[in-house]
C-alpha cells in the first residue's frame, strides 16, 4: 500500500468524522485543523491531526511531502455543468454588448439552438477531445468531481452522442463524473409548434435507449416560460424516474417558473439556478430534502440579479454552488471564481461558500459519502493552496491563482 504523509499544512479545511448535507446555519460551520498533517493511503484519506501528533513510528516508511505552510481543502464538487459542447459563442456575447436581448439572439437562431446545430454536425471524437481538454483545465483549477449534462443534441442521435461522450469521459478520467440527460433543454425548430411530438420523442425514442445503455444518472428539464411548463417538466421527469433517473431541474432562472415547487414535489436531488425566487418557492425548498444549487457566474454573465443566497440560508435551505459551465450563459467552469463571487455578490461567508462548493456539491451528485470533505475513508481529492494568511483570503483575492497543486484520488496532477 502506498502511503503519503503531508506535513506542515497551515490549515486543513473541512475536516469531518461523518458527513451529511448541510442546511441553513450549519453551512457556516467549517471545521478546520491548524498546523496539521494528513495521511493518504493509495487514493484514500487515512489519517490527520496536528503536527505535534504526527504518528512517527507507524508511518516511518511513508513518503513525505512538505506543504510548507499551504492550506489543504477538499477539491471542488461542481454539480451543474454543460461541459460537452461543440463551439464557443462569443459572437452572441458581442451582440449582447451591442444591446441585443436573449430573445433577439434566439430569434436569429442563436442560443441553445445554435449550440445544437453545431453539436449535431460535430463528430463524437472531436466532442470527446474538446471536453477532455476542458476537464484537464478544470481539474488544475481544483475541480475533483463534476456533473455533465446533455441537452445540445435535441435529436435522438445528438442526445445519445453527447451521453456516449460523457460515458467515455467517466471511464477514462480520474475525476468523478455524473451524467444528466437534458433532452428537454429547449424545443428543436422542427417541433416548434408540436411540443407534444418532441416530448413523445424524449419519452419513447430517447429514454429507453439511455436506460438500456446506462448513459445517464439523472434527468433534467429547463422549466421556464417559453421552454418547458411545470406540467411538461413533471411528465418528463416522471418518465425518467420510471427508468431509474432521479430529477435535477433547471428552475426559477428567468421567471417564477414553479420549477422549484415541481422539483420538490418529485423529490428532485437538486433544483438549480434560482435567480428568480419568491417566498413560496423559498419555503417549498426549505421544507424539502432537495438541494438548491446556485449558479452565480450565470447570473453574472447574463447581467441578472444574483441568487438570494442569504434568504435561502436564513430559511434553512441546503445550498450548493456550481459553475453551470456552458457556452451561452457561463463560459467559465472555474469554481474558485464561483466561490469568490458567492462571497462578494451574494454575501455568503467564506465558510458557507466553501461548504456549498465542496460537501453540498458532492451531495448534489450523490457523492457525499466519497468526496467533499477531509474524512477518513473518503477519496483524497484535494487542493493545496499557496501559503495564504487566512481562509477568507482565498475568495477575497479573487483574481489571484492561489492553487499550488491539486491531488485527484491520491495522485498529484
Ligand atoms: N438555462 C438553461 N441552460 C443553460 C444555458 C444554455 C445556453 O445558453 O447554451 C444554463 O443553465 O444556463
Ligand atoms: Zn445549466
TrEMBL record:
It is found in: Cytoplasm. Zn(2+) binds at residues 80, 82, 250, 324. Pathway: Amino-acid degradation; L-histidine degradation into L-glutamate; N-formimidoyl-L-glutamate from L-histidine: step 3/3. Residues 289-412 form the Amidohydrolase-related domain. The keyword Metal-binding applies. Keywords: Cytoplasm, Histidine metabolism, Hydrolase, Iron, Metal-binding, Zinc. Fe(3+) binds at residues 80, 82, 250, 324. Its cofactor is Zn(2+); Fe(3+). It catalyses: 4-imidazolone-5-propanoate + H2O = N-formimidoyl-L-glutamate. N-formimidoyl-L-glutamate binds at residues 152, 326, 328. Its EC number is 3.5.2.7. It comes from the Bacteria. The keyword Hydrolase applies. One of its GO terms (molecular function) is iron ion binding. One of its GO terms (cellular component) is cytoplasm. Pfam families: Amidohydro_1 (PF01979). One of its GO terms (biological process) is L-histidine catabolic process to glutamate and formate. Binds 1 zinc or iron ion per subunit. Catalyzes the hydrolytic cleavage of the carbon-nitrogen bond in imidazolone-5-propanoate to yield N-formimidoyl-L-glutamate. It is the third step in the universal histidine degradation pathway. This is Imidazolonepropionase.
